[in-house]
């Protein structure tokens, strides 16, 4: 009998992992957005030492993801699918580690349920398809938790150091671990700090550069993640529904409330065995609250930066679902999987919910330019990476590009214009020197205005 149970559990786990992998392959070739393109171009164009000593000081993240991505693309190339598969693999591996944690803490039922929830989780699927560090850091964070519950301290030290060389905010998960087992973690945490010491001077440089954004680009500072009521409310909403929304706000509100009732019921079930659930709640809530407090002073608070605690959310949901007994288990299991699969399907198969469509924008622009001399202008130089990634012909410039040549056509990228050019100075300058707007196009958030010199426009 026990052999049959183990065999069935193994079968369920394999199905969950295969399903997690397959579902993360849909729409994987959608356009790269700004941050992804920056990651890919940095990994492609900088040497390993330059990624550490030249690129990183101007970035907000440690260098490990970029170094891993550089190795990855040397084998698999820089297509959208190739650069994202690294995150897909990290995402599926996270599902497996969540299974291991669940089994260690509460047995096979919670383990398989939590793995199934995370495998279908819309927010986790979204970031398992992004060429950024968030999927990898989530894997590393749950590995730290796994080594913690298994009391494998050498593994914890090494993984925690790797985690903090991947991103900074997940350091917040180490604090509740220390609070749970202070005596056993003193030496391991000293080991982590020693491994991080070589990076400390560059971290201080990054911190100084990051804080300078507050005065140099105040609108961008707020956009990056300032704590406010909206950002706080988005954490539970996005954890449940991912990055979807509806034009009909009443429908969206009803969806949020209905989903909240189902997830809330499951989480309420954790109270039945509070002593066992309390450490998980601490691991889940502390990083969120600490990040919110930090976000009052530094722009770090946003739901996607908290992806590393999402697996803990689903472990709690699975644990609560199991605790409520057979009467509630099947309805809650069905309800949560229905929410996950519906929200994930809406994201995967609805282009409106995909990333900024730079691929289509650049394709249209270069086809529209034809054989005419043309240039694309941006309101700031540091937003050009996705254009550079896709462009095959029409050159791009920052706001000083108007004087680079006698162009027949100008394509003005309206991207982040309210943040970096709130006075709309570049548009006014283009129109003041004789260019007439001929077309306005939007590609899922990438807005392009096409201009021609009046002399050419009049020919039509």
From TrEMBL:
Q: Give residue ranges for domain Glycosyltransferase RgtA/B/C/D-like.
A: 61-190
Q: Where are the transmembrane segments?
A: 12-31, 81-101, 107-126, 185-204, 250-268, 280-297, 303-320, 332-350
Source domain of life:
Bacteria
* Bilayer topology annotation: Multi-pass membrane protein
Annotated GO biological processes are: lipopolysaccharide biosynthetic process
Which Gene Ontology terms of cellular component type are present? plasma membrane
Recall the GO molecular function terms of this protein's record.
Answer: pentosyltransferase activity
What is the first-listed, main subcellular location in coarse terms? Answer: membrane
Q: Where, subcellularly, is it found?
A: Cell membrane
Q: What keywords were assigned to this record?
A: Cell membrane, Glycosyltransferase, Membrane, Transferase, Transmembrane, Transmembrane helix
Its name, as the record gives it, is Glycosyltransferase RgtA/B/C/D-like domain-containing protein
Which species? Candidatus Blackburnbacteria bacterium RIFCSPHIGHO2_01_FULL_43_15b
């Amino acid at each position: 009998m026990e052999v049959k149970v183990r065999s069935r559990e193994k079968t369920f786990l394999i199905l969950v992992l295969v399903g997690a992998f397959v579902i993360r392959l849909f729409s994987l070739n959608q356009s790269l957005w700004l941050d992804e393109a920056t990651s890919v171009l940095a990994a492609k164009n900088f040497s390993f030492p330059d990624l550490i000593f030249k690129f990183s000081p101007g970035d907000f993240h440690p260098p490990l993801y970029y170094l891993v991505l550089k190795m990855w693309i040397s084998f698999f190339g820089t297509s959208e699918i190739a650069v994202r598969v690294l995150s897909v693999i990290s995402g599926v591996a996270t599902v497996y580690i969540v299974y291991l944690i669940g089994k260690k803490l509460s047995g096979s039922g919670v383990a398989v349920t939590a793995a199934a929830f995370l495998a279908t989780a819309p927010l986790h699927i979204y970031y398992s398809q992004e060429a950024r560090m968030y999927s990898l850091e989530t894997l590393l964070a749950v590995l730290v938790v796994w080594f913690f519950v298994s009391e494998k301290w050498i593994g914890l030290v090494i993984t925690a150091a790797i985690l903090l060389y991947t991103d900074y905010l997940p350091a917040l998960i180490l604090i509740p671990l220390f609070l749970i087992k202070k005596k056993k973690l003193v030496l391991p945490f000293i080991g982590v700090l020693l491994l991080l010491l070589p990076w400390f001077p560059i971290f201080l440089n990054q911190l100084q550069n990051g804080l300078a954004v507050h005065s140099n680009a105040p609108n961008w500072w707020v956009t990056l993640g300032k704590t406010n009521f909206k950002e706080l409310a988005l954490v539970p909403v996005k954890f449940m529904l991912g990055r979807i929304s509806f034009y009909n706000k009443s429908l969206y509100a009803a969806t949020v409330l209905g989903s909240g009732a189902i997830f809330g019921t499951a989480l309420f079930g954790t109270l039945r065995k509070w002593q066992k659930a309390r450490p998980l709640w601490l691991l889940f809530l502390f990083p969120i609250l600490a990040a919110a407090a930090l976000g009052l002073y530094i722009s770090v608070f946003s739901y996607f930066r908290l992806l590393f605690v999402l697996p803990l959310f689903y472990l709690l949901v699975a644990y609560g679902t199991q605790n409520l007994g057979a009467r509630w288990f099947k309805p809650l299991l069905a309800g949560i999987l229905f929410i996950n699969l519906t929200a994930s399907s809406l994201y995967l198969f609805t282009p409106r919910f995909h990333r900024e469509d730079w691929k289509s924008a650049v394709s249209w622009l270069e086809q529209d330019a034809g054989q005419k001399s043309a240039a694309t202008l941006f309101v700031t130089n540091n937003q050009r990476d996705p254009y550079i990634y896709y462009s095959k012909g029409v050159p791009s410039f920052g706001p000083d590009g108007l004087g680079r040549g006698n162009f027949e056509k100008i394509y003005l990228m309206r991207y982040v214009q309210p943040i970096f050019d709130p006075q709309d100075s570049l548009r006014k300058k283009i129109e003041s020197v004789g260019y007439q707007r001929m077309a306005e196009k939007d590609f899922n958030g990438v807005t392009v205005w096409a201009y021609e010199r009046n002399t050419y426009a009049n020919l039509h």
